[in-house]
Amino acid sequence: MSQSSLSFDVTRSANPRSADERAKILEKPGFGLYFTDHMVAVRWDKDTGWHDAAVTPYGPIALDPAAAVLHYGQEIFEGIKAYRHADGSIWTFRPEANGARLQRSARRLALPELPVDIFVESLKQITAVDKDWVSDADEASLYFRPFMIGDEAFLGVRGAHKASFYVIASPAGPYFAKGVAPVAIWLSTDYARAAKGGTGAAKCGGNYAASLLPQQQAQAQGCSQVLFLDPVEGKYLEELGGMNVFLVYGKTNTLVTPALSGSILEGITRESLLQLARDRGMTVEERKVTIDEWKQGVSSGEITEVFACGTAAVITPIGQLKGEGFSVGDLSAPAGEVTMSLRKELTDIQYGRQPDRHGWLVRLDG
Ligand SMILES: *Cc1c(COP(=O)(O)O)cnc(C)c1O
C-alpha cells in the first residue's frame, strides 16, 4: 500500500503566541521546554492505511484510557532539527534517514511504517506554519519530535489496529550555553540498556524508560550520562542512554566506534561523523571495543579523546569515565582537537557555512 501523496488539511491556531512572546522564548529556549503553535497529526488504521493528515493548533491529545500505548508501551519517536541559514532559508539534515529509521523502529514495535515522503512532508508542513520559530541565533535550531503511538482502545496483547503519527516542534538553544565543555560519564554495571533480541536498535520510549534509573545513579555519582555495556557479556561498549560513543586514537589518526550490534541505536550523527572522518583521511573502525581497551588506552595515552554524539548535542566531549571503584581521564582537560573540529565541520554543514558535499541538507521552507 503506497500512499506517497497525502494532502495535509491545515487549521491555523486562532491564538498563536505574539511576536513579542515568541522573541522572549527564543532568547533563552533551553531544550524541550517550549513548543510552537502547531503540530502535525496523521492517522492510520488497519483497513484504510494512512489518512487524515492535518496541521492543527498545538494542544492535548485525547486518548481512550484503553489505548495500547498506555498499557503496552507501543511508542516510537525521532529527533531531527531545522536550521536557519544566513540567507534566511530553513534546512534540515538527512530527513530520509530519520524517516527510514522510524520505519525500522515501527517494524520492531509492530506499528505501521509511515512512507518516508510523508515523514519529510510533515516536517515541511509544520515549518510552513511555524517558520518564525526557527531562530537565527548562533547554534539555535527548531527541534522536531516526530512520534507514533498505538492508540487502538483494546487490552488484548497484539499490535494495535489503529495508530497515530504526530510531529511537535520545540525551539532549542545551543546545547552548551557556556561553550562546549567535557562531561563525566558513569559506567553502569547493574543495568543494561538493551537485551539481545530486544528493542535496543529501535528508537522507542521504552528504552528510555529503562535508562532512567541508571541515569539517576549516574547523576548521584556526579556524572551527566550513563554508559552501557553489551547485554550478553557485559564487556563491550554499546552506547550512552541517548548518544553513540567514539574513541580517538590520536597517534594513529584513527576513529573507533562500537560496531552496530543489534542492540545499539544507529545514530545518524554517528554515521555522518564516520563519513566526515573518512573524508579527511582518518582510519575509521567500527568494531567491538572492550571497556578495558578504553581504560588502558586512556592510561597509556593511545586514546587521546573520547566523545558522544547525537542530534540534540551534536558532539559532547567525554572528559572522564567513572564506575564502581575506578575513574579514568581528566575532567579539567580541555576538549580534544579532533572532537572539536569534527563538531565544527558537522555544524558548519548543517548551518550552511560549508558546502554540503554529500547532499545531506533538505530545504524545508519555500
Ligand atoms: C537517538 C539516539 C541516538 C542518536 O541518534 P542521532 O540520529 O544521531 O540523533 C543514539 N542513541 C540512542 C539510544 C538514541 O535514542
UniProtKB/TrEMBL annotation:
One of its GO terms (biological process) is L-valine biosynthetic process. NCBIfam families: ilvE_II, PRK13357.1. It holds the Pfam family Aminotran_4. It comes from the Bacteria. The keyword Methyltransferase does not apply. It is an enzyme of class 2 (transferase). It catalyses: L-valine + 2-oxoglutarate = 3-methyl-2-oxobutanoate + L-glutamate; L-leucine + 2-oxoglutarate = 4-methyl-2-oxopentanoate + L-glutamate; L-isoleucine + 2-oxoglutarate = (S)-3-methyl-2-oxopentanoate + L-glutamate. One of its GO terms (molecular function) is L-leucine-2-oxoglutarate transaminase activity. This is Branched-chain-amino-acid aminotransferase. Acts on leucine, isoleucine and valine. Pathway: Amino-acid biosynthesis; L-valine biosynthesis; L-valine from pyruvate: step 4/4; Amino-acid biosynthesis; L-isoleucine biosynthesis; L-isoleucine from 2-oxobutanoate: step 4/4; Amino-acid biosynthesis; L-leucine biosynthesis; L-leucine from 3-methyl-2-oxobutanoate: step 4/4. Belongs to the class-IV pyridoxal-phosphate-dependent aminotransferase family. Its EC number is 2.6.1.42. InterPro entries: Aminotrans_IV, Aminotrans_IV_CS, Aminotransferase-like, B_amino_transII, BCAT-like_C, BCAT-like_N, BCAT_family. It comes from Stenotrophomonas humi. The modification N6-(pyridoxal phosphate)lysine is found at residue 203. Its cofactor is pyridoxal 5'-phosphate. Keywords: Amino-acid biosynthesis, Aminotransferase, Branched-chain amino acid biosynthesis, Pyridoxal phosphate, Transferase.
